[in-house]
C-alpha cells in the first residue's frame, strides 16, 4: 500500500509527463525559435519528471517490504516512460536540426547531393539510439534485479532475526518452566515434611493425654484403696 506522499508524487509525475508529451508533439510542427523554445520547455519538464521519479524511489523505501511490489512496478513504469520521452526529445531535436539544415529536401527531391549519405548516417544514428535504448533497458533490469535481491536479503535477515528472538523466547520459557517444576517439587517436599511433623505431633499429644489419664487413674485408685 502506497503512502500519501508517494501517491502525491505519482500524480504530479503523471501530470508532468502528460504535459511533456503534449509539448513534444507540438514541437514537431514548429520551426525556428518557437521549436527551440518548445524543446527547451520539454527539457525542463523532463528534469522535473526525473526529480519526481527520484522522489518516488526515495519514498518507496518508506513502504514496508511486503507491500512494495505494486508501488515498485509503478516506479519502474514511470522511470521507463521518462527515459522514453528523453530519447524522443533527442530524436526530435536531431530530426529538426536536419530539416533546418537541408530545408526539408532529401533524396526524393533530388536537390540534396548529400541526401543518400545523410540518410545512411541517420539510419546509423537510429541504430545507435536503439542500441542505447536496449542497453538502458538492460541496465534498468539489472538495477531492478539488484534491488529485488537486496529486498529479498533484507526480508531474509528480518526473518532470521525474528527466528532468533522466538528461539530466545522459547529458551526463556523452557527455563521458567524448569524453575517452576523445581519450585513445585520443593513445595511438595515441604508439604510432606509438614505432614510427617503433624502426624508426629498428633502421636506425641495422644501419648501425653494417655499418660495423664493413666496418672489420674492411679491417683484415684490410691485414694479409694
What does this structure look like?
The protein is mostly helical. It is built from 4 helices and no strands. The protein has helices spanning 4-27, 32-60, 69-102, 115-224. The radius of gyration is 45 Å and the shape is rod-shaped. The protein starts with a helix and ends with a helix. Mean pLDDT is 80; it is low at 104-117.
Which parts are unreliable, with pLDDT below 50 for 5 consecutive residues or more?
Answer: 104-117
Please estimate the helix content.
over 70%
What Rg, in angstroms, do the CA atoms define?
Answer: 45 Å
Taken as a percent bin, the fraction of beta residues is under 5%
Number of strands: 0
Mean pLDDT: 80
Briefly say what this structure is.
The chain is mostly helical and 225 residues long.
Describe this protein with a few key phrases:
single chain; 225 residues; mainly alpha; rod-shaped
Question: How is the secondary structure organized here?
Answer:
Elements: H1 4-27, H2 32-60, H3 69-102, H4 115-224
Helix pairs in contact: 1-2, 1-3, 2-3, 3-4
Amino acid at each position: 500500500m502506497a503512502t500519501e506522499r508517494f501517491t502525491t508524487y505519482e500524480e504530479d509525475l503523471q501530470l508532468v509527463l502528460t504535459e511533456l508529451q503534449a509539448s513534444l508533439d507540438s514541437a514537431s510542427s514548429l520551426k525556428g525559435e518557437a521549436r527551440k523554445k518548445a524543446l527547451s520547455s520539454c527539457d525542463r519538464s523532463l528534469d522535473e519528471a526525473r526529480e519526481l521519479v527520484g522522489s518516488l524511489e526515495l519514498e518507496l523505501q518508506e513502504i514496508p517490504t511486503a507491500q512494495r511490489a505494486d508501488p515498485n512496478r509503478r516506479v519502474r513504469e514511470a522511470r521507463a516512460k521518462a527515459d522514453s520521452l528523453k530519447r524522443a526529445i533527442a530524436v526530435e531535436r536531431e530530426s529538426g536540426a536536419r530539416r533546418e539544415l537541408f530545408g526539408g529536401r532529401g533524396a526524393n527531391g533530388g536537390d540534396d547531393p548529400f541526401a543518400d549519405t545523410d540518410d545512411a548516417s541517420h539510419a546509423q544514428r537510429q541504430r545507435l539510439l536503439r542500441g542505447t535504448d536496449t542497453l538502458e533497458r538492460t541496465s534498468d533490469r539489472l538495477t531492478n534485479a539488484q534491488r529485488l535481491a537486496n529486498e529479498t536479503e533484507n526480508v531474509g535477515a528480518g526473518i532470521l532475526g525474528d527466528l532468533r528472538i522466538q528461539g530466545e523466547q522459547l529458551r526463556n520459557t523452557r527455563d521458567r518452566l524448569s524453575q517452576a517444576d523445581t519450585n513445585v517439587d520443593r513445595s511438595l517436599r515441604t508439604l510432606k515434611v509438614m505432614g510427617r511433623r503433624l502426624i508426629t505431633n498428633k502421636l506425641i499429644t495422644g501419648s501425653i493425654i494417655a499418660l495423664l489419664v493413666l496418672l489420674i487413674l492411679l491417683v484415684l485408685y490410691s485414694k479409694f484403696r
